[in-house]
Amino acid sequence: MRRVTQIWPAFLVLGLGLAVTFFAWRVIGHQVGREAEVKFDHQVAQAVESLHRQVQDNVSLLIGLRGLFNASEMLERHEFRRYVSEFDIGGRYPAVRLVSFVRHVPAAQKADFERSVRRDRSVDPRGYPDFAIRPAGEREQYMVVTFMEPMAGNEGAFGFDLLSDTQRVPAIEYTRDRGVATASEPIRLAADPRGQVSFALRMPLYRPDMPIGSVAERRAAFVGVVVSAIQVDDLINTYLGRQLGAEYDVAVHDLGIPGMAAPGAGTVLMYGKESKRSGLQRDVTLEVAGRSWRLEFTAPATPLYGIGGELPQVVLLGGVITSVLMFWLTLAQWRARQRTLQLAQQATAVRAAEGLREQLEFIQQLIEAVPQPIFFKDVRGHYLGVNRAWERFFGIARATFIGKSVFELYPDNPDLARTHHARDAELFSHPGSQSYEAAIRDAQGELRQTIYNKATFNRADGSVAGLIGTITDITEQRRVEEQVRHMAHHDALTQLPNRSLLQDRVGQAIARAKRKREQLALLFIDLDRFKSINDSLGHSVGDRLLQAVAARLLGCTRAADTVARIGGDEFVVLLGDVDRPETARHVAHKLLEALSAPLELDGHGLQVTPSIGIGVYPGDGEDVETLLRNADTAMYHAKREGRNNAQFYTPALNGAAQRRR
pLDDT class for 376, splitting at 50, 70, 90? Predict the structure, then answer.
């Protein structure tokens, strides 16, 4: 009992050290988990936005097709093919299986309709002599797949009557009566031999010379639908795979049309699989052209890679080791003292001194073997001793520094010296242990991020004799954390801001322009025929070309402007404080000239041209989403005008259908 009573300071140091370690472990573990949750929410939001944007792009394609039909008294097959081919379906809409026109054919017109299709030689000189509505049979009306692109690989859908499948009838009638684009239930395409889960976006078409204000009028004027058939696996893998890592699980359920019961109503799994969920979970309901989808995201509760996920364990292990080391040092000091008293009582002073020397040498060897800097101070703050790791870190020999204070250690930074001295005084006034972070410079003058762990030790009478401290270098850990934050907001290939950072900056710029009553402009840039270069010369040349384009864009803009890459070959330039729209046009022409200049990469002489759409705040949109969408619409207009030009957004670009309505 007396022995335990005498060594209680060592156990106190151990207990306090373990308590501080456990507290730090809990706090850092909570912080790491919170950072993982914030990153998870951010990536889920980006993924949902990307998916929603792609669906809206497909709806915009159908709106354009409806405008084309309304502008033509009798649309021909070759006109349909030419219009659809200009959109580069395979490159810009990789999830789309086919785009088609489905004509409404009353039973009385069936024979005439089949003869007209058989004689149609606008695309194939042979016509379609074997064409017939499939499946055979007499029905009151038909919805026949008449035009479709691409035809190759989808021949099985040509002539198919959608109304022959009774499960599709309510959805088609719903589209006809609403008058806007609608999404279908999950379907298996007749033209898909693999039978993948797909869905169809349908846009109703009406005779332009008839009123469509009511449901009855729309039924009377109905002539058919234009359809974009989309394969769900390709849609999710292409657009959510870009935003989420391999550790994320995604499941997509179709919830049907809100407020409308259907045969077999209930949730339908469209993508992923049903599984027991654990870790981070988010469910998002997404409106897809009149239907509701539930997107279920699951990810591990902590990161599976990088130093972030291991940080709590590192802190716990390091704290336990440091606490045990300080306990051992305090206990060893007590044992050394006890040994000294025992030897003093022995007859031979030489043997006593020898035993004490061996004990102290062992303690010194233990301290010298520790790879972290270790130091001892007395209650006045003067250094009593250091180990070799401390000498290497600060580049100071112990023989020249023993007896000096922290003010001699940092002669050029008195504020830092006073901070450390105040921490020492706080520990001496409340004996125990202490831990805090500090930025200090090493022997090479480099700034290092460190963690100080200190604990007091006592004299024989129990009074505080000084402190022992260790320094842990966490610079690399902080660098990795900063790199992760940078990667979350920048494009990995060009190091330009990504879509997330662009939207944040555009939002700030709009708020500033609104407050100062200024204008700003967005230049939406798409490289013409970049896909052909990428496919013919390889992704390596394509990547270097994108880097060269980024450099030229930066060279043509001000430091205060923002140049971002938002995906593929699409770039956006944010111009703040634009005095008039002509300023944006002038910058756009500079970019056209710079990007069109010849370029040589790996022995290949290349020349790419851009199509640029310009949107100006506040006239073309007073929020981020509207301004970006309208600049994108202007860019497509530039492509239709022959590419390699810049066009301002006008409301007329939304298509003839939108203007009429």
Answer: very high
Strands 562-567 and 519-527: unpaired
Supply the mean pLDDT for the chain.
Answer: 84
- CA proximity to 595, closest of 553, 642, 654: 553
Q: Which of 423, 424, 324 is nearest to 378 (CA)?
A: 424
Taking alpha carbons only, the member of 366, 316, 325, 362 closest to residue 454 is 325
Which of 659, 660, 563, 656 has the alpha carbon at shortest distance from 71? 656
For residue 118, count other CB atoms closer than 10 A to its CB: 14
Contact present, 491 and 565 (Cβ < 8 Å): yes
* CATH number of the domain that residue 246 is part of: 3.30.450.350
Whole-number Cα distances in Å, 435 to 228, 379, 450, 472, 629: 62, 18, 11, 11, 52
Helix (H, G, I), strand (E, B) or coil at 325: helix
Measured distance between the N- and C-terminal CA atoms of the chain, rounded to whole angstroms: 94
Asked whether residue 140 falls in the same domain as residue 256, the answer is yes
Residue 185 confidence (pLDDT): 87
Is 66 among the domain residues?
A: no
Q: List the single range of 57-61, 141-145, 212-216, 489-493 with lowest mean pLDDT.
A: 57-61
